[in-house]
Amino acid sequence: MRKPLNLLTMFVVLFAAVIFLAWSYIRMEFAGSAHYTEQDTREYEFYTPDILKKMPRISSRYDFDFANITGPASHVYAIRYYDADDSGKIDLFLSSQGFQKQNGCHIDAVCWIGTDPQEIVTVSTLENPKAILVSIIYNF
Fold first, then answer.
1. Residue 71: what pLDDT?
2. Looking at the structure, do residues 110 and 132 belong to the same domain, yes or no?
3. Do 121 and 73 have their domain in common?
4. H helices of 30-136, where?
5. Residue 41: CB partners within 8 Å, gap ≥ 6?
6. What is the pLDDT of residue 1?
7. Is 27's pLDDT higher than 90?
8. What does the pLDDT look like over 7-20, one tens digit per residue?
9. Which residues pair with 133 in a beta bridge?
10. What is the pLDDT averaged over residues 18-42?
11. Of the candidates 120, 91, 122, the residue with the CA atom closest to the CA atom of residue 109
């Protein structure tokens, strides 16, 4: 009788520990949005796609955003470079990664398309605050 109770107690404690340790990742998996910096290591590693991790840092001040958009289902990942207005290094990087600049865009930005038809990269110049916004949109 005592052995099954000990096993049950051990199982409950182990299950609670796993849930406790995984809770932040569970919360991130179901989040509708996030705003973070590269120093927020857990969020940076979880949300940031490789292309944004490799993107040249054209300003010393930048941050990241994630949005899970419903309707036509999309995930939008973005990096915002503050006090920047020249996207030349970003354009060169995107070209080197196989992206092609498009003639038109669905927003007031420059759109880039790569080999994945569900992935769109937009590069926008913002006025207030002065910034460059690079967004990766995954439609699924």
1. 75
2. yes
3. yes
4. 41-47, 50-54, 88-96
5. none
6. 57
7. no
8. 888 888 888 888 88
9. 80, 124
10. 87
11. 122
